[in-house]
């Protein structure tokens, strides 16, 4: 079985605006996950997803993007926080910064 991939030069490119919005959403979600994890050391990933899904600020930030689409990113942030003791310490110091993140 063969697959032929045709790439046309006139294909649309990803705009810089979309890339910037994606970075802002990732930063915002990372801050929220840090805040949630700082509240409880034994928080599981499914609980984090539930808290984020119920949070109105998160829903407003992700107007057309389903939270499930970001599961792998959120899981990566969660695992980084759980495995890195320095991140846990920073997490406690920066959890208050989440409130300072501007809402669009």
UniProtKB/TrEMBL annotation:
Residues 92-104 have a biased composition (Polar residues). The keyword Lyase does not apply. Residues 85-104 are annotated as: Disordered. One of its GO terms (molecular function) is magnesium ion binding. It holds the Pfam family PP2C_C. It comes from the Eukaryota. This is Protein phosphatase 1B.
